[in-house]
Amino acid sequence: MFLKLLSTSLSLSLAVLTSADITWPLYSQQCRDDAGPPFLDDEETFGQGGKYHDGSAAYPQLLEDGSCAKPLQGACVSRDDKKTAYLEGPIDCGNKGWYCRIYNDEENGWANINLVGDYNFGNCNSTSSFEDAGYDRDGHCHGSSVDNTYYWWIRDHWHRQYNGRVRCCCGWYEGGTQPLFSGRIANRCDYRRLVTETENLDNCRDANEGHNLGYDDIGCDASYQSSQLNTPIPEDDDVCWEIQRFGFTEEVGSPPTQSPDAPSPVASPTTESPVASPSTSSPVSDPTTSAPVSSPVNDDEDDDPEEAECVDSPLDFMVGLRIRTCNWAGNGNSAKRCAKPGVAKHCPATCGKCDEFKCADSGRRFILEENGKKKRCGFFANNPSRCDRFDYAVETCRESCSYCG
Length: 405
Known about the structure:
Elements: H1 2-23, H2 42-46, E1 59-61, H3 73-78, H4 82-88, E2 98-103, H5 127-131, E3 140-144, H6 150-159, E4 164-170, E5 190-191, H7 225-228, E6 240-246, E7 317-319, E8 322-324, H8 326-330, H9 334-338, H10 343-346, H11 354-357, E9 366-367, E10 374-375, H12 378-381, H13 393-396
Parallel strand pairs: 3-5
Antiparallel strand pairs: 1-6, 2-3, 2-4, 4-6, 7-8, 9-10
């Protein structure tokens, strides 16, 4: 009788595992602002059993022996293929959550498309990241304290074309061996909240915002600075996994330059900033034309170029869930408000930090007047022509838009 019950139990367990590939995800958590086609139309859009990532260049970075990373070993058994397992899950982080970082991979021939324009974090191995909790020049970070949100974040950012190399690890508040809140990995990270099965999706605009659960205004733990500064961050591969050539493209991607079974490059970037802030180059004279005749010099004029004025950004900016202005920074307890990460960079005149930040980019996420969208200065650093198309971009992203020349 006992053996019969055991056999029945094992059969039920296998049935659950088998059904995961058919029923995963268990329900839709797709909110209105999520990018990509409607999840409930997937069969019509991609055909029966089709996936949004079918035919793409993305591939999982497997271990040296060709097996899946530990948090995805169950998914690699229950899903049709390892690529689907890595891109969809279900991940097994003990329901302690996860965090993923997307790095620019253009050096390996994978165009970043929209990634650089929404850089939002710095690795905890540079002086800038340790000193500024708002430093955001290393990549895009996002996570959650719930495992099953992983599918929805991956799908959303895939279709936003935040293309690059993805490295994910277990543990948001806790869990794994290096949770995000340990302050050892990244100085900040956005959050994807859980959308419950009973929630009305018509009322969910964006699960990535409006919850005040992100890793903000905390920064890198200074106790790691002496051991990690300018060196790769020591990470535990047992709780991490990687996806190469991540993100949607209109064209079929070029084949990978290395075998998908090759070991994963786990070293975190050690450069202070992978994207240099573009500067406007001076026009070059055509050497075949004669030089124009110089105008007479006016001895009354100053030979030195006019020095840029120290100005605050006129744009509203975000502190947690609240919209703030530089007037707010200068009122009340201004010392405390200006000490918040990135505020003095947004409001150098008000905060008395002109010597340091007169020519620096804002350190906060700000709101564009034209469309109400929230952006960081990476949006302009990635495409400097935008500086002329958006009001107050130059006064806000002073380095990226060459405010000081």
